Amino acid sequence: MRKxxxxxxxxxxxxxxxxxxxxxxxxNLQPENHFKNVPTVSQNGNNANHSTTTAKMKENVFxxxxxxSDERKGQNVGHSDSIIILHVDLNNHKYSMVSIPRDTRVYxxxxxxTKLTSVQYIKQATDGTTAGIKAAINSISQLTGVPINYYxxxxxxxxxxxxxxxxxxxxxxxxxxxLTHPWYPENKGKVIAQDTQTLNGEMVTELVHERYSLPNFDxxxxxxxxxxxxxxAKQALKPKNLTKLPQLTNKMSDFVIATNMSKSDIASLxxxxxxxxxxxxxxxxxxxxxxxxxxxxxxxNNNAQIVLDQTSLKQTMKHFE
Length: 321
Known about the structure:
By secondary structure, the protein is of the alpha+beta class. The chain is 37% helix and 24% strand. It has 13 helices and 14 strands. It has helices at residues 8-19, 31-34, 116-127, 129-144, 156-166, 201-209, 218-236, 239-242, 245-250, 252-255, 263-273, 278-281, 310-317; strands at 61-69, 80-89, 94-99, 105-108, 112-115, 150-155, 169-173, 177-178, 191-192, 195-199, 258-259, 282-286, 289-296, 301-308. The strands form five sheets. Strands 11-6-1-2-3-12 form a six-stranded mixed β-sheet, with helices on both faces. The protein has a two-stranded antiparallel ribbon with strand order 4-5. A two-stranded antiparallel ribbon has the order 7-10. It is globular, with a radius of gyration of 19 Å.
């Protein structure tokens, strides 16, 4: 099945809306005021097979879950192919991001053990869209031990539409990427060479879509996501693109499938990243684990799953408390 990593378009909106704060010039949009009381949408695990108590967040600190779904137009179900937690620390003006492998082994109440990517799909198929998102959020919170305060879900069309609105972006591609499973058949076999590449929306989505030709598969794809994110942020912050704010705002419904963030939440978060220094203020992490062939209680077969290293997991997630 074609895979998708689409968390990037959400952060584009955050960055660009940050440049248009004249539209939301209210005192309560200042981040330190706006985010004093944040919601918590995740729940602690409390079943016999998996019980996790999430850490209590400090004041002016919160987590945003960015989900990239492979849901296509006209569908009501999708797999969680991109799973990113963004940690915002207003006290120290620091941001941390961690990518969670889609094939991570997790426990789903009522079903048993499966891949994290399947949680949202099976709950959407059986209980509806909202149930699917909630199940994914809770599984991620239980896995990591940190609360989720906000969530935003997007998809393939959203990323392409957003990049096309910006025009093109420059991406520092760290290694040659051969497209073996492209979204568009005509791109099969093309190579995006190692270098700084100027890419349009179609090729950006192809880049973050590829994993089978990469030496480290999903982990290298996560690295590509980071590079694309930086490229998008830099392009969005250029003065010429701030004039595209109204057009970008009108496209919100095109790339956001589901969120508990209001327009003012996004605008306030945008104030934070308006002058973001990605080299000094942003830290990026990957969760390491071992690939093992294990039984999947939902799919009723043995398949490759990632079992995370618990010591490394706990050390990493301390940056998200």
